[in-house]
Amino acid sequence: MAEHSFLPIIIAYYSLFCCSSFESGSTIMSNNVVEAHSSVPCNSTDRGPVVPTTPLVSFLETLQETALQAYGHKGFDPKLYVDLSLKQNLSTTIVAFEKLPRTENGSVSGHDLNGFIEKYLNGVGKDLVYAEPVDFVAEPKGFLPKVKNPEVRAWALEVHSLWKNLSRKVSGGVKERPDFHTLLPLKYPVMIPGSRFREVYYWDSYWVIRGLLASKMYETAKGIVYNLLSLIDEFGYVLNGARAYYTNRSQPPLLSSMVLDIYDRTGDKDLIEKALPALLKEHDFWNSVHYLSILVFIFIVEGIHKVIVRDAKGSLHTLNRYYAMWNKPRPESSTIDSEIASKLSNTCEKRKLYRELASTAESGWDFSTRWMRNGADLASLATTSIIPVDLNAFILKMELDITSLAHVIGDNKIAARFMEASEARKKAMNSIFWNLEMGQWLDYWLSNFDACKDTYTWNASSQNQKLYASNFVPLWIQLFNSDEVLRSLQNSGLLRPAGIATSLTNSGQQWDFPNGWAPLQHMIVEGLVRSRSAEARSIAEDIAVKWIRTNYVAFKKTGNMHEKYNVEKCGDFGGGGEYVPQTGFGWSNGVVLAFLEEFGWPQELKLDCP
Q1: N or C: which end of the chain has fewer CB within 10 A?
Q2: 237: exposed, middle or buried (C-beta count within 10 Å: 0-12, 13-18, 19+)?
């Protein structure tokens, strides 16, 4: 901060025990500190920090809105406009933009806007350049030894070769003029998911890395981890994605799993030494007071993700929820969010909805009836009022991973601390989420939600008894395996002809029926395998075979790997949601390779759909 010492520091302090809603107003304090607070608090429950965005992001949001007016809704992708970069400085660009001829209603013609964009902005993807992976080999030694079928092996090598297609590095221009770009200047090459997703994403990276490990691309996998560690160093947490407009939220925390899995393959203790301090910081981000360094501002944020619940026996448990640091339209979907909120007349209600939209994006499940009070109305999102099963499973795994990693480098004090934390979280999950009748862990809804409430009292009726694949994510943690859960999964209705359904509700949202997603297939399958039960492994292999088949048949039909698949029909890719189906696709590639590595494919087993 020394180089920016002439600038005021903003300290935004938030606690579940403090009702500041950060809606408006500020008080100048001593030592050039500005404390954000609310002079006229909203009646809604939107309370929490709002991190600043950059001037470039704000301008590109305006451009996005202008483009929608000029071009219309058909085929319009709002993300495209916030991924553009400047050819000239921002002030010159804004002056030129403001001089564009406008109609009486303020709109700009498509012709004039095209000319402006061509003159003042670089096309999307120009700030990323192709990077040949340093450790790519067309057919790695020891690649998928259990795959005996030559047709499957040939296809697996095609999937393996896709890593070359998805490999990028940040261009030198981003590092020279970061203010011209929304892309963040990462040091190491990245694997992008594909299509409209032209940057690295947090939780996608875990399954990308699983695929890279199957492809023996250990250096590329480490580079991805080092990039994510650098985000923690700069911001205090891993961003949703490596863009300036994603600084307001994280994503499911799987960095510790990436580090542990790479270590298990490589024995690289140096990676652990470098990663452990950042992993401790990330754990703090989800669980306690932490300092966020955004731009030249420092934010002190306490407890936004942390919730305390008193169980039926009177014991207190600490668990976590998603809670974005944002109450405005998401920049990458600004026009969409504004349209969803247009039915709300109250500004405070809109701010609350915008926080829910961003918090749902933090979950990775954007969007699903899982987060909605009314499954037919996206404006009824209530993600910050839900304690999710899977998030707490991820944080439990983080605590177990940190315990293991600390043991490797001989830090017994940290290992003991995180073993104690993991035991407390396991107990909390079984007390708050476990439903004995259903044999599943269920999301818990915070009734009469009040952000100022310090403790909630558990009520059985607050468990969400609808069927979601997330109810079985704790299987991924070996501590939670049991025959009872296996029976529940078999009888859930989630096991479909081409994989595990995300839910049983066909809402038109992409994280609902009939879509299946690679991460959910993998976590549940790997959890069943880890149980060491022969029956569980047999069920896991059946799921994996169905998933591999649907990926293969869709690939042969379309020439692409897809972001999601229709689990009702083998070989059919998924749909729904706020954007068209995407191809590429990082985590789908990774899970197919991980499944083939685990189960192989016998010579005689057919690959086509039944």
Answers
A1: C
A2: buried
For this structure, is 563 an active site residue? yes
CA distances from 552 to 214, 463, 546, 584 (A): 18, 38, 10, 14
Asked if 366 is an active-site residue, the reply is yes
3-class SS letters over 321-351: CCCCCCCCCCHHHHHHHHHHHCCCCCHHHHH
Q: Count CB atoms within 10 A of the CB of residue 523.
A: 26
pLDDT at 28 over 80: no
Which tokens belong to 347?
Answer: 């500004």
Question: What is the DSSP-derived secondary structure letter of residue 433?
Answer: T
Catalytic residue among 204, 563, 572, 597: 563
| C-alpha–C-alpha distance, residues 360 and 68, integer Å | 24
Strand-pair category, 297-301 with 290-294 = antiparallel
The CA dihedral of 491, 496, 501, 506, to the nearest 10 degrees, is -100
Q: Of 12-16, 30-34, 364-368, 475-479, which one has max mean pLDDT?
A: 364-368
* Contact between residue 71 and residue 321 where contact means Cβ atoms under 8 Å apart: no
Q: State the average pLDDT over residues 408-425.
A: 98
Contact status, residue 87 vs residue 126, Cβ threshold 8 Å: no
pLDDT value at position 453?
72
Give the span between the Cα atoms of 474 and 489, in whole angstroms: 12
Catalytic residue among 366, 399, 443, 597: 366
Strands 444-445 and 440-441: unpaired
> 95 and 369 in contact (C-beta within 8 Å)?
no
Q: How many residues does the chain have?
A: 610
* Dist. CA 108–CA 115, nearest whole Å: 11
Distance CA 48, CA 26 (A): 15
| Chain-centroid distance, C-alpha 536 | 28
